[in-house]
């Protein structure tokens, strides 16, 4: 059967090689559309039984163009790019590969933080993370990696996650908090790890930023949609001590960079999961899951049940 790997952001070559080995080793044909446009994906999907994507949009148009499609695997964690209702309506199983790229995202959080608080290495004195407070907004796979690394920096860590028991956080040496108000008011640094859902879209803005202590830094390596961009701009204007760091830059990034150059830091393109290791982990997991689904209906990580 034909399995299409269609990713606008390419996997590391070593990951592609592994994906090829898994797919071809199982007797399937790999069709690779990397750095392609959406039209390239649509052109290639007609007779595909499996599809592997990253943040690439998979919607009704894609499902309509893919009558043979049985399984889509998002090589990564967030699946807000996939229309699950349409997948179900088309009889397609959608899975993700939870945890496989989390460490890469967490490492970038600290890379960006250090770059910001050392003033982009411009020769002036910066500040340190040792002893500072860090609030982790959602204690999932990425949040836990962030906590592990933050411990190494000697930060004081709390986390908010209604789905995680206090005992679990406490066993990790993390102080659980139980409201966003607590999380934002008690931490100089807050790191966002919530998914983009109907509940979380535009849920973080000036109201929460206003609660943060002096010299607050908000870092977003999750999804740009969870930020209320207009109210973020208002917060930047209202608080000269507030800084915003994002691997998922907002639509108003150019304006923010222009007005508050020193207080914002954005990657040019979402780079959190872009390491060879994360590509290998997530890419191979995705390939194995597609192959297993086509073989015997494997659906352990199905998200459209
Ligand atoms: C994820 O949800 O897995 C991360 O945000 C990484 O996304 P990417 O595969 O588009 O880099």
Task: Give a brief outline of the structure.
With 305 residues, the chain is of the alpha/beta class.
List keywords for this structure.
Rossmann fold, alpha/beta, 38% helix, five-stranded parallel sheet, 12 helices, binds 3-phosphoglyceric acid
CATH level 1 name of the largest domain: Alpha Beta
Q: C-alpha Rg, in Å?
A: 20 Å
With strands numbered from the N-terminus, the spatial order across the biggest sheet is 8-7-6-9-10-11-12
CATH superfamily of the largest domain: NAD(P)-binding Rossmann-like Domain
Q: Give a quick account of the main beta sheet: strands, pairing sense, barrel closure.
A: 7 strands, parallel
Count of helical stretches? 12
Plain-language structure description:
This protein has 305 residues and is of the alpha/beta class. The protein folds into two domains: 2-100 and 275-296, NAD(P)-binding Rossmann-like Domain (Rossmann fold, 3-Layer(aba) Sandwich), CATH 3.40.50.720; 102-266, Rossmann fold (3-Layer(aba) Sandwich). Helices cover 38% and strands 18% of the residues. It has helices spanning 13-25, 38-44, 60-64, 84-89, 102-117, 141-153, 166-171, 180-185, 206-211, 229-238, 253-259, 276-296, and strands at residues 2-7, 29-34, 48-53, 71-74, 93-96, 133-137, 156-160, 175-177, 189-192, 217-220, 243-246, 264-266. The strands form two sheets. It has a seven-stranded parallel beta sheet with strand order 8-7-6-9-10-11-12, sandwiched between helices. Helix 1 (13-25) packs parallel to helix 12 and helix 5 packs across helix 6 (141-153). The longest helix has 21 residues, at 276-296. It is elongated, with a radius of gyration of 20 Å. The two termini are 24 Å apart. The mean pLDDT is 98. 3-phosphoglyceric acid binds at residues 9, 54-55, 76-78, 101, 270, 272-274.
């Amino acid at each position: 059967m034909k399995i299409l790997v269609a990713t606008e952001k390419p996997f590391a070559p070593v990951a592609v090689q592994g994906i090829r080995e898994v797919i071809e080793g199982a007797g399937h044909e790999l069709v690779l559309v990397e750095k392609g446009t959406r039209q390239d994906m649509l052109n290639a999907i007609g007779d595909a039984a499996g599809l592997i994507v990253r943040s690439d949009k998979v919607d009704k148009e894609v499902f309509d163009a893919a009558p043979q499609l049985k399984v889509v695997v998002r090589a990564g964690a967030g699946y807000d790019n996939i229309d699950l209702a349409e997948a179900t309506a088309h009889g397609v199983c959608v899975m993700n590969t939870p945890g496989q790229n989390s460490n890469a995202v967490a490492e970038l959080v600290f890379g960006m933080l250090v770059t910001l608080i050392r003033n982009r290495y411009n020769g002036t004195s910066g500040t340190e993370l040792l002893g500072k407070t860090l609030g982790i907004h959602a204690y999932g796979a990425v949040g836990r990696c962030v906590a592990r690394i933050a411990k190494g920096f000697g930060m004081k860590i709390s986390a908010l996650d209604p789905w995680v028991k206090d005992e679990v956080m406490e066993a990790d040496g993390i102080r659980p908090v139980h409201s966003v108000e607590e999380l934002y008011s008690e931490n100089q640094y807050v790191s966002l790890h919530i998914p983009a859902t109907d509940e979380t879209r535009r849920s973080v803005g000036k109201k929460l930023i206003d609660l943060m202590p002096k010299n607050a830094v908000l870092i977003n390596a999750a999804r740009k949609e969870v930020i209320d961009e207009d109210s973020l701009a208002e917060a930047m204007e209202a608080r000269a001590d507030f800084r915003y760091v994002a691997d998922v830059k907002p639509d108003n990034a150019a304006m923010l960079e222009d007005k508050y150059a020193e207080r914002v830091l954005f990657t040019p393109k979402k780079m959190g999961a872009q390491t060879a290791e994360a590509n290998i982990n997530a890419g191979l997991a995705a390939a194995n899951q597609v192959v297993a689904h086509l073989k015997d209906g494997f659906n352990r990580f199905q998200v459209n049940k």
